[in-house]
Sequence to fold (389 residues):
Amino acid sequence: MSPVRVALIGTRGFGAVHLRGLERLEAAGTARLVGVVDVAEPSAELAAIHHRSLGDLLAAVPEEDRPEIVVIATPIGTHVPLATEALDAGLDVYLEKPPVPALADHRPLLEAADAAGRSVQVGFQARGGAGVDLLRREVAEGSLGTVDAVHVYGAWQRDRAYYARSAWAGKRRMDGRRVADGVATNPLAHAVHAGLAIAGIDEVEDIAQVTTELRRAHDIQADDTTFLRIDPVGQGPSVVCALTTTSPQQESPWVEISGTEGTHRLLYTEDRSVRTAPDGTSEELVHERAGLLENLIAHVRDRRVPLLSSLASTGVFSAVLEAIQSVPDPLPIRSGVTWVGEGEAGHPVVEDIEAVLLEALRAGRPFSELGVSWAEPDAVQRWSPPATS
Fold:
């Protein structure tokens, strides 16, 4: 088949990652980049295909170069209008995560895709790895016995430069609009979404309650150290998350199921997992990975190919995002913080943060309920999805 024609909106930040990926797909004859859109001046190599808006791109390119897919790698607050514009133009969409800044935006975007007869793939990269589906089957089939909780652990490190890289980084709101940045909704959103999928919490209606404790050691609006507990309606495991960007070193994040007949820990960024039996013996598994853009391309060429991370499958994550964004702003961590490095390379390290995260997962309780010195209990909030008619 001829290469699928692709346009990219947003060429910096994660857009630069998409540019490198598209170079690889062009070399393989799978895709052809026909235009880029960015408000910034383009690099020399992109100048010939640069446009200020999607409308300008569509008006300028000849029919044989009209894109079939638009990749959107722009700030979270721009996702809905840009994706809606692309769908209205009859284009399929690859939308970076999180797809929308508010739960109320999710259904209208789904309806726009349905009305256009087009599809939206969301860039939750963990869904490209086969390990998520394996752990999901093990929970559903009871392979490891009864599983009460799916544990999500992320101990990352981010410096001042990370939160200074763009105007919206580290923000919850900007210019009166929701931005929805934060450790659980942006850098470690993949882990949270994978945990929900593994637990079988697939719909907003599957959520009974979300417990949050949002903290920040950086001088930002958003959370950089967060506890989440998503409890389901009825039977099934809760998803318990302990996440930070204030770790002394960068670790591989993981999602783990712990059952009465063993445990299985998935390191989703490495596509490997470790399954451990009750007697302590363990085996390591390696999982295949499918690229999400390649999956969308295959879907566009043959609609019978299912999407790995469809917009419809991400509504439950939008509910968790809504829980995080609906509660008061994160409280600063006022003690136990050491800054390492100088200037833009400086980063905070919260005392014993890794041990605190692990204890929160083990207990299934927020930091402030564990006697942590820097965690005041007034930061714990609980949210339930709005009733639907």
Summary: Residues 208 and 233 are 5 Å apart (CA to CA). The domain at 131-288+328-383 is CATH 3.30.360.10 (Dihydrodipicolinate Reductase; domain 2).
